[in-house]
Amino acid sequence: MTVAPPKVAEFQDRLLSLGLARVSEAAALASAGLIGRGDEKAADQAAVNAMRDQLNLLDIKGVVVIGEGERDEAPMLYIGEEVGTGNGPAVDIALDPLEGTTLTAKDMPNALTVIAMAPRGSLLHAPDVYMEKLAIGPGHRIGTVTLTMTPSERVSALAAAKGCSTNDITVCVLERPRHEEMIAEIRSTGAAIRLITDGDVAGVMHCAEPDLTGIDMYMGSGGAPEGVLAAAALKCMGGQFFGKLLFRNDDERARARKAGIENFDRVYTRDDLVRGDVIFAATGVTDGSLLAGIKREPGHLTTETILMRSKTGSVRRMTYRNPIRR
After folding, report:
1. pLDDT at 7
2. How far apart are the C-alpha atoms of 326 and 319, rounded to whole Å?
3. 130-136 and 112-119 as β-strands: parallel, antiparallel, unpaired?
4. Which of 30, 80, 128, 217 gives a 20 to 30 Å CA spacing to 71?
């Protein structure tokens, strides 16, 4: 008698999506009382605790592939941690419980809670190193801009594709000393620059809705794990993303090898970083161009969440009115 192998649970992205939104909302609500209080660590820890608790309620066999750090660096939501009830589909999870801890502590714009989920083996296990990033919105042919172009060439190429002047292009850049030369070159084209102090996942997402945000392109270097999250968002919203890992020393190369990466010169596209269908949720903590921040009113807190599925291209915005329990 032949025994049939156990049935593998399918990745039901539609059924899991609302649960993922609750995870994102819970992390945001947990950090609400720490907005503007100047304590980055406390805000981050509150979001981590809430996100982990909610993830463990979902019927998934989840593994954190982008998280708070390696096992010896983070007590929870570390890379490789198993989350969920253990029932249901095997999934990869990429998360940032509070993308913009400094933004939250200082009550500055665009702090978000962010999480993405995809079938097991779909998300690149990106090491905690820098990544050179380039992103534009939807509607352009592949190769319109590339990482091999100079910053000014990218601006000119995108302007030509959009049928506008370079003066009409706005580029989002993380404000760091390492970007000073790039910023000067971009400005030499006549393009405008939107500088952000933190939160480059949100920075990349801005490219997907240029009419709403006023951002046409993102470029510069930032964390590689955040690059995977940004690629997951663009896979749902539309747009192009390119990334190349940057290494400062042999320790960082060893970290990449540990993550299974051998080709250190590879340029990753959006679909290299996120190889399968993905669902993505982000909740606003502080007010931003994409999402409203948490609103405190007598008796309740209100959040806004964006929930997206790459399979359908659906983008849902949800407002959650949460009673304050004393």
Report:
1. 55
2. 22
3. unpaired
4. 30
DSSP 107-120: T-TT-EEEEEEEET
The mean pLDDT value for 273-283 works out to: 97
Pairing state between β 170-174 and 217-223: parallel
Tally Cβ neighbours within 10 Å of residue 185: 16
Question: Nearest 5°: phi and psi at 163?
Answer: 70, 40
Q: Across the chain, where does the E strand assignment appear?
A: 61-66, 82-83, 90-99, 112-119, 130-136, 170-174, 192-196, 217-223, 240-246, 267-269, 279-284, 295-297, 300-309, 314-323
pLDDT in tens, 10-53: 788 888 999 999 999 999 999 999 999 999 999 999 999 999 99
Q: Measure the CA angle with vertex 261, ends 197 and 44; round to 5°.
A: 35
Alpha-carbon torsion (210, 211, 212, 214), positive or negative: positive
Give residues with Cβ within 8 angstroms of 284, minimum separation 6: 28, 111, 112, 290, 291, 292, 293, 294, 303, 304, 305
- 82-129 pLDDT, tens per residue? 999 999 999 999 999 999 999 999 999 999 999 999 999 999 999 999
User: pTM (2 decimals)?
Assistant: 0.92
| Burial status of residue 299 (CB atoms within 10 A of its CB: 0-12, 13-18, 19 or more) | exposed
